[in-house]
Write a structure and sequence with these properties.
The protein is mainly β. 13% of the residues lie in helices and 37% in strands. The protein is elongated, with a radius of gyration of 33 Å. The relative contact order is 0.06.
Amino acid sequence: MPLTQGDQFGPYTLISAIGRGGMGEVWKARDIRLDRIVAMKFSAEQFSERFEREAQAIAALNHPNICQLYDVGPNYLVMEYIEGTPLKGPLPVDQALKYAAQICDALDAAHGKGITHRDLKPANILVTKAGIKLLDFGLAKLGTSGIGQAPKSGLSPDDATLTMALTGKNEIVGTLYYMSPEQLQSQATGQEIDARSDIFSFGIVLYEMLTGKRAFEGASPASVIAAIMERPAPSIADIAPPALDRALKICLAKDPHDRWQTARDLKRELEWIASGSSEITKAAAASRSRQLPWIAMGLLGVFTILFGVGYYRATRPAEPKPLVRLDVDLGPNVSLGSPAGSTIILSPDGSRIVYASNGRLFTRRLSEINATELNGTEAAFSPFFSPDGQWVGFFQAGTLKKSSVVGGVPIALADVRQNAAGASWGDDGNIIAALGFPGPLESIPASGGMPKPVTRLASQERAHRWPKVLPGGKAVLFEVTDAGRTVDASRRIDVVSLVDGTRKTLVTRAGFPQYSSSGHLLYISQGTLFALRFDPERLEVSGTPVPLLDGVRYSPFYGYADLDLARDGTLIYRTGQLAAGVTVEWLDATGKTQPVLKTLGIYRRPRLSPDGQYLALDGGDGSGDDIWTYDLHRQTLNRLTFAGKNTVAANAIWSQDGGVIFFKSNAGISWIPANGAQAPKTLVESKGTVYPYSLTPDGKRLAYFGSPTSVAGERYDIFTVAIQSDGKEPKAGKPEPFLETPADERHPVFSPDGRWIAYSSDESGIHEVYVRAFNDKGGKWLVSSGGGVYPVWSRASRELFFRTEDQQIMVVSYAIQGESFVLDKPRVWTQRRLASIGTTPNYDVTPDGKRIIAILSPD
């Protein structure tokens, strides 16, 4: 009969199922006599007398690392109920040695009573708060789940348990991947299995603890058997000291006589190795560092996970201690780039990372090797985790979004102004974000909605950015940037209470705050990570700052650093130098460059005048603010706008005669004479966010994109508006929708003859470049393949440029046949990639089509 909740077996009442396998079931139960929780393992058959006698011997084992056997019934065992998780690697060397010594101690206790485990594997080793617990000592295998684990629905092929029997010869006992050679041969030879078989299995477990991989893999059971019987023991020399590598190889000797003969001797060896753990750690780190320069130069930047930030205690001065480091190789195809915000983040429990590579977000558990791409995250930047680690928030194309770590379609939460500068997800279900720079912090429900102000900009403050919500969601740390001061002097860290609005300054000349559960504020100052004692209840700092790490990768202009901190004190960070800004340069198809603006700075949206003699861009002084023009012949800069606090002036568009510049402003779309002879005036009023983008060849119609309503999470559409001039100043007619769909449409550009509009849309799930006739006749043509944004027409030839999400410039030739648009296959225009500067255009094409003016990262 099937077992059900409430069934009674003597004094035991079933509570809930724990596991189920091909040979039986495991249930959580209550012993009503002693009022304690137990685990009951039911067999499909009655137990024999010999089983009961051996069960009595096992019940005599009394060891802190062995699961206890309490009772035996006709077809069930009553075991100690244990709350824990199965052993899983990879683990740091010192942690693996600790667990390994406990396993050997338990094996020694069992072997001393003549009991051999015969099924030692990670699934039968639980990690509890008190340490290691070994399960199923010599008992019949009844299920694949360990005691206290979530149920599984049957045996997994990977667990491949063959023939399970407590006693008798000529039977294979155990789990295939963890069997010793003599276990595999026992059916044919009748060879007795002794304690040395457990030592071989222990070696396989130890290898898996250190590497996260199986020691002997194969595509089929036959190939696994062949690997165990014939393949040499794998080496761990690249991650562990020589002494541990030698000990492992002795464990995995094919001949039992060549192995460690007792678990006690093996335990002593491991304890001896562990006694020199500081030297071991250094040796392992040195071994890895010898490999990393090759990885760093050939594949990716160097990342380091740092364990031990939590060693600080508020009761004593925070003094630096030796830190244990583990370098993480993200793989050969990872290109991290330099988007705003950290390129890599760590889940609150320290088990998972998310990183930005090739213009997309990827996630991976630290215990796993392969990463998974998060769908719909093209050009995403500044990611952040939810408190439970199940969601990842990020900024993308003018929108704050979230995506489940297990995949799915991202969910839009709120509109974002230009230059978003970080967000943090609080325990109370609200996200605190810097939705634009300049600007204050705002709060958005994690389910989406209208942003509400959290802070106000005081006099001389330009922005509040890089927020970090404290545990409990009652206060938030953030960086304050002042106006009119040098970069280093302009930054400080404040904290604001989300309960009563009380605000305090904690540290000056510092930025990118993090909170450690050890009771410390961590922050960046000139590339060094500091720690300072911090009381999260009183919102006060004390003591003297202590430097923790030098050379953390950070941006002195944008204020962010490439680091993140989990609640358990695990810190992940990226090393290396990040240039203080980007460059503006001429770039040709061969990759050859020539400087335009020699000073590094925060430059965006370069636009050449129709005659190619002038350049308009955001941030001509290197700050990223306001619109400037640059005389390419005289090499002189002229500032056109003087946007103050909480105002916007960006995204310059030249009129066809070069006399006027249209731009995005707080009012909507404004204009100003290109010579700066008068103040800006409003052209198109809008309560929402709108971006002017292109004019027809005759200058009589302007195309722009945006949202006219400022509804949180609303997607952008494309509009056009007639432009008239009375000889003194331009006037706008009534805006007309060109493309309004559920998709997100942007970057409308009129063709040189005015008959077509190229634009980008995410109707396929990612942004691609399309072409439509103007006025729209219903047809459209796909230009890009695999992603594309920021189309630019060549005025000298029938070519259309666009940029991929990973900063590659592409070009496609086209022909016009009547009302049809005929496209060739896109090709790479130059191998040199542009700098990643968020969701803003970073190139323009010269009138002759031979060069582009590009924003590049310095070499």
